[in-house]
Amino acid sequence: PEALSNSLVYAIGCLLVSCCIGFFVAQTIHSLEQQKKPKLAQVIDVLSMLPLALSGVMVGLGVLLGILKVWPALFSWYALPILPHAMLTTPFVVRIMLPAMREIDASYEEVGMIYGYGPVERFFRIKIPLLKPQIVVAAALSMAFSLGEFGASWILLRSGSWDTLPVLVDQL
Predict the structure, then answer these.
(1) What percentage of the chain has pLDDT greater than the value 90?
(2) End-to-end Cα, the chain, rounded Å
(3) What stretches of 17-127 adopt beta strand conformation (E)?
(4) Most exposed: 74, 93, 99, 147, by fewest CB within 10 Å?
(5) What is the pTM of this model?
């Protein structure tokens, strides 16, 4: 039960972090494309995909070494595995959200401006409802990858007190 609850907490935390970061990275790329800055958009797009070039073990090791060097007290933080899980799943969120953002017709934003909606109101009343299916898919994929992530969890959870299901299966 502890491993299951730990896995679910990490998966929900990963879902929240990676969906928020991935959404805004995709929005940044899309905005740069609309502002006719394709080179900068491509650089950010490529940089956002870099965690996919590494295994979960390497990402977990990088987080472990970074935490031990910069802020060792954070190593005993319960939610630490959320960080590498989010690093590994954020590129997938970007890959799901970016094409959907590119497909949204600009006339929706214009209609929102005609109705007098401010930028925040247009975001919540227009953009989020139009992207709801992609947000659900990104959230589900992020959560599924986090639940199955073994490498980063195995590196960070050596103490045994916050084991996840994949780490528990490995121990058994």
Answers:
(1) 53
(2) 15
(3) none
(4) 99
(5) 0.82
